[in-house]
């Protein structure tokens, strides 16, 4: 029997604010343990929370980017539980009146497009980080109180591939909005996974299992593949799935039980008495909507239409907002979108990877790249010369036209001059000429390479190739 999975995600996203949700402590990553704390985030008696307005703004912006309905009235609640990483023994979160409801994330998997519905986005404070050692455990409260969005989906995802596509699309949207760094290594983005399986044709969802605290996309994908297989095999063998919380062990590639349904907490939610409700007027919401950046999916479509580049190129370029901005500036300046796309995808991204840096950290500007491409388009220099200049422009910047003039790198375009170089090349390489006359077509390209070498890379490659072909054809008779 075939079994159909249903998957829902609860994605926790740290917001990009300078200070914590309810106090003035820094949110900077990497400080020594327990050095960015105060009576408020440590839960001292009598310490009063003060709401971070920027966190409200960033949550609403996220909701608008994802098509949510923004609540004009929302409130914070206390979620009571006892655990070492929560010093107050309750977490300030949102329960029945979140900031954002509904919305969705568009994904494409195996050429099929669909939208994954969102249930809600609510805002809360993060908890501390526990570290377990052989004989003891420690808690770092630097993270406690950092603004945290929880983005909850409907159980619309039907495979591990769709879950991966959703997380990548969500991350891209949040990065475009500028609301989070979404750095998984720093814990900016984590998620809990809910998964069930049911017999094909059955409408009612199967028994749900939750996999807690996933902090890598590959981990989510692998855990889902394992858990779907585990549940399917259990049902196929006549067993039943028990509703429980499980943890993922990447070393063994398996999930293991943490607690069953009977162990579920009663969080005893009640309104946070020390905070007023959040009341937003429609004018403020619409002002924030007007300032939204273009959504990644919309930008991909526009780049294809406006610059005549393939869909694949647009997908690569828009994966990073900074790269897309760089492309548009360069393409607008030189008027050759396809050439700019090719240079970025084959050369600029390679250099960024080799130097392990970002566009903001290198000396290459979109204007410089555009001017370099324009020199090639105008046949002032040839492509190999331009490719040779790029690493220098990437490292130190500069004006391509001035470099070309100062170093005498201009392209040789005189047909008579190149013709003489071709003649010299044919006379100096009789064996290669004989190879061509004997039927080896690739020999012609080898001869063009020799012409380029003789011209120190300055000859017009197209003209050199044309003249080589003509002279070889004449010899072939």
Task: Provide a short characterization of the protein structure.
This protein has 477 residues and is α+β, with helices and mostly antiparallel strands.
Descriptive notes:
With 477 residues, the protein is α+β, with helices and mostly antiparallel strands. The protein folds into three domains: 282 residues, no CATH class; 112 residues, no CATH class; 62 residues, Orthogonal Bundle (Arc Repressor Mutant, subunit A). It contains 15 helices and 17 strands. A hairpin with a 4-residue loop joins strand 14 and strand 15. The N and C termini lie far apart (71 Å).
Roughly what is the average pLDDT, rounded to an integer?
92
Q: How many domains, in number, for the residues? A: 3
Shape: elongated
Number of strands: 17
Taking the alpha carbons of the first and last residues, their distance comes to 71 Å
Give unreliable regions as ranges: none
C-alpha-based Rg, rounded: 30 Å
Class from secondary-structure proportions: alpha+beta
Q: Major β-sheet, in short?
A: 10 strands, mixed
Search tags:
15 helices, alpha+beta, ten-stranded mixed β-sheet, 3 domains, 17 strands, 42% helix, three-stranded antiparallel β-sheet, 477 residues, Arc Repressor Mutant, subunit A, elongated
